[in-house]
Specification:
The complex is a heterodimer of chains A (268) and B (261). Chain A is an all-alpha fold. Chain A has one domain. In chain A, 74% of the residues lie in helices and 0% in strands. Chain A is built from twelve helices and no strands. In chain A, helix 3 runs antiparallel to helix 6, helix 7 runs parallel beside helix 12 and helix 10 runs antiparallel to helix 12. Chain A is globular and about 60 Å long. The model of chain A has no long low-confidence stretch (mean pLDDT 89). The longest helix of chain B is centred in the middle third of the chain and has 31 residues. Chain B starts with a helix and ends in a 7-residue tail after the last helix. Chain B is mainly α. In chain B, 69% of the residues lie in helices and 0% in strands. Chain B is built from twelve helices and no strands. Chain B is globular. Chain B has one domain. The model of chain B has no long low-confidence stretch (mean pLDDT 88). Classes of the chains: A mainly alpha (268), B mainly alpha (261).
């Protein structure tokens, strides 16, 4: 299987979403409105408690806007592959997917990377620019931080994909996956730090969240971006993301094999 | 009619019983997480924007209850864009039932009652724990806030639906006002700049969902010194906003052009 196949799939994923321009603009508007609302709640909190969790106001605000920017690329609200997949299993269209001469997981990952790239370039960057105009944000000065941040975002996207892929596979065993899907969304929003940075969480809750993969979606990329101000070591964080990405993708590959054996296509 | 269509969807929802239970409970957890975030904030604070935790519980509960009721009854208006795109709105327009009733009842999801229950519980706790000098008028303002807040959010859902008749793909714009409005009003408006407060008072009347009635019920002075009459004006504002939404909906349907397929 050549790299050009996957590049092609990724570019299809990109263009599939790029078709809907007004939807993109609407999304940018909504992300921006939420960014502004959350910024004022963070200001209220950090004015009362300066240096809470090692963040100043600028760091907290940067966190708020980066979290908004990552919502769509990492698939924090679900949708996409999950909604897609249980429908394909229910309708039997999954049989076509399984006949294709490329592994299901790799095909889906390539498509999702294309989708995420589009989401990041539009709904990621545009609201962030508005945020930077309206609020004092803390940008890193060194190039290496930006490079590490880019790597960390890429890994966050892969981990986000792997989580939704695993959930999609559930459709092979339980037909209606909307229950587990909404549970995943709850975990992703809360335990990723997207609603409030994990550094503000009280002891036990924070430790639980640090054991879960969800913090790799938002908190870890933000930690990497803010490392110059907070003094956080970023290489262990990237290593953690690599571990989770490998573990979740590995599990995905294993379960795909099991799922293929269970598949019974109904109807004709 | 609404009952008949909605009832059919409720029975359909029960087909996958486990899923229904999981969806309803995760829905409640999801909405409770908003409040968990506030609780975590208050583990570091005594007051936010001059409001104590119990006072914020009142604001949160009123806003959550209002959007919960509106979302239960009209939340599906946000899927109207899909119907415009694939042309199935046509079917609704030729049936002898008002289109809005059909849009509202279509895919009626009883599990959304989770948000109403959860917000109601937080509101109940806030009202019993916050120091309130109860008078008959305060009870009346509180009760009217529950109705008027729901009407204001319901109007926003209808306006969002009407907007999609023209811009089918852009359904997410409505989310900024509905769910964004809910998030905004969960916190005391005192934490926002005065421009935001003016916007949600005079343009999109979200402040009348919970902020002004809550100032009255809790007996708190308006930090922005806007007229005290606003604190009891929610019914008037809600009536006006419902009228705006109804007019816009009719205009939108009159200008609806089918996909032709």
């Amino acid at each position: 299987m050549s790299a050009s196949l996957y590049a092609g799939l990724a570019s299809r994923g990109f263009r599939r979403y790029a078709t809907y321009r007004s939807a993109t603009l609407a999304g940018i508007f909504t992300n921006t409105v939420f960014g502004v609302i959350i910024s004022y709640t963070y200001i209220a909190l950090w004015v009362e408690r300066p240096q809470l969790g090692g963040y100043g106001i600028a760091q907290a605000l940067t966190f708020a806007w980066v979290a908004q920017a990552l919502i769509m690329p990492v698939g924090l609200f679900g949708g996409g592959i999950v909604a897609d997949y249980s429908e394909r299993v229910r309708s039997g269209a999954v049989a076509t997917d399984l006949q294709r001469p490329a592994p299901l997981l790799a095909v889906r990952l390539a498509e999702d990377l294309g989708r995420a790239a589009y989401a990041l370039l539009t709904r990621g960057i545009a609201p962030m620019l508005v945020g930077a105009l309206l609020f004092p944000l803390a940008w890193p000065s060194s190039v290496s931080t930006w490079l590490l941040f880019a790597l960390s975002i890429t890994l966050a996207v892969v981990i986000g994909f792997a989580l939704r892929y695993l959930l999609g596979l559930l459709a092979f065993w339980i037909i209606d996956t909307s229950g587990p899907a909404s549970m995943l969304v709850v975990l992703q929003i809360f335990a990723s730090g997207s609603a409030l940075p994990l550094v503000t969480f009280p002891g036990v809750l924070r430790r639980i969240c640090e054991l879960l993969p969800f913090r790799c979606l938002v908190q870890v990329p933000c930690d990497v971006l803010l490392r110059e101000d907070t003094g956080t070591g970023s290489l262990p964080l990237i290593g953690l993301q690599l571990l989770w990405a490998a573990a979740l993708l590995g599990l995905g590959a294993l379960l795909t094999r099991a799922a293929v054996r269970t598949v019974v296509v109904q109807g004709g | 009619m609404f009952g008949a269509i909605a009832g059919a969807w409720v029975r359909a929802g029960f087909t996958y019983r486990t899923s229904f239970v999981v969806l309803t409970s995760t829905g409640m957890i999801l909405t409770f997480l908003d409040f968990a975030i506030i609780l975590i904030m208050f583990s570091h604070l005594d007051a936010l924007g001059g409001f104590t935790l119990t006072q914020i519980a009142v604001l949160y509960g009123l806003s959550g209850f209002a959007i919960g009721v509106a979302d239960l009854l009209l939340g599906n208006a946000e899927m109207l864009g899909q119907r415009v795109r694939d042309g199935t709105l046509d079917q609704m327009l030729v049936r002898p039932v008002p289109a809005l009733v059909q849009v509202a009842a279509d895919r009626f999801a009883l599990r959304r009652v989770g948000r109403v229950l959860q917000s109601g519980a937080v509101l109940g706790w806030g009202l019993s724990a916050a120091p309130i000098d109860w008078t008959p008028l305060r009870v009346l303002v509180l009760a009217s806030a529950l109705v008027c807040g729901s009407l204001i959010f319901a109007s926003l859902f209808v306006l969002g639906g009407a907007f999609q008749v023209f811009a089918g793909d852009a359904s997410e714009v409505a989310n900024a006002f509905t769910y964004g409005g809910n998030t905004l009003t969960q916190y005391p408006l005192a934490i926002y700049p005065v421009e935001v407060v003016r916007a949600v008072t005079f343009i999109v009347p979200l402040a009348f969902v919970n902020w002004y009635p809550a100032l009255y019920v809790l007996g708190v002075d308006d930090p922005f010194d806007l007229p005290a009459a606003f604190q009891v004006a929610s019914p008037v504002v809600a009536a006006l906003f419902v009228a705006v939404a109804a007019l816009t909906w009719r205009t939108a349907l009159r200008h609806y052009r089918s996909t032709g397929s």
